[in-house]
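Blinded run. Sample ID left blank on purpose so nobody reads anything into the name before looking at the predicted structure. Input follows.
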Amino acid sequence: MNQPRSLVTLAAALALCAAAATRGAAQQPPAAKGDSTKQVHFFQSETPLEVTLTTNIKRLRGDKPDKDGNTPWRAATLTYAGADGAPATIPLRVHTRGIWRLKNCEFPPLRMNFTSEAVKKTPFKGLDKPKLVSFCRDQDSYEGYLLKEFQLYRVYQLLTPASHAVRLLKMTYVDSASGKKQAVRYAFIEEDPAAMGARLGGKMLKTKGAMPDDLEPTHDLVVGLFQYLIGNTDFALGELHNAELFSSNIGEYWPIVYDFDFSGAVGASYATPDPILHIRSVRERVYRGYCVPMETYAPVIAMFNAKKKAIYALYADSLGKLLRSDDVRETLRYFDDFYSTINSASDVRQSIVERCLGAKKK
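Blinded prediction complete.
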């Protein structure tokens, strides 16, 4: 029985790209170009910052969204060691956000609101309204989930600058009402959409309903393969569920994704797949990216292959070593399965090309 022409073509293209990658000259897809001069200085360092967040934690826990989904801003302070080693304090406001975590976590997820004057001469200069991603429960296992999710943002940044920059914090949480320390756990700050849009040379849109033909194919496929790499199905590009839409200055539309704690690579005990997917665990990969033209696959897969060594190296550097060694081994084995799939033309066809959203039914 003859193979489908599309599969033969794809196999040949993958073979050529694999050979180029071996020679260190893998074909690269058109890259999203970020302007490093526009990146907030805070994200240009990977050194974790030790900070103390003081706010009325009990009041925050009681805040519920109104009919429009909004929660009130609450006063807070952020304290860190200044250049002279003495404590320095920044006033800010915070409010709760999210849906699942707001209902299920001991400490609610927050959005921070800094004023430019308050952060002008601090390490936080340039931050406006970033997300703070905190522990869900004050347990080592939950802190481990957070560190694994943080690593996935770093992987995403390696693949494309069209992704949120992040920076790790070692955060002490203090309740302002009682003055008592509630927890000391890792957290991270995530670049806010407006800052990312400026860095990429465009703007973020809130328009829902984007379909495959609306999106620039290369960026679309990078997102789909990244989500497949980490085993994340908890997103919907058209609905902007854990996804954003970027409009470039040349009229292209790129999807950008976030929130990866329900991914197989994190493997959180609370993560469950959507029943419509008919899988038993989030560790089971299901391709949920949009369909793209056939000629898009080979160069993007070549890029993932070319980045493999750098991706794995993230789990051996100073930040990667914050993870338990067992978690590192498990994650890299999980990534190995992805790389086995994308380097088999038949597996790419069966698991990705024929499963993409928008594919014509036979």
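Unblinding after everyone has recorded impressions. The two ends are 18 Å apart (CA to CA).
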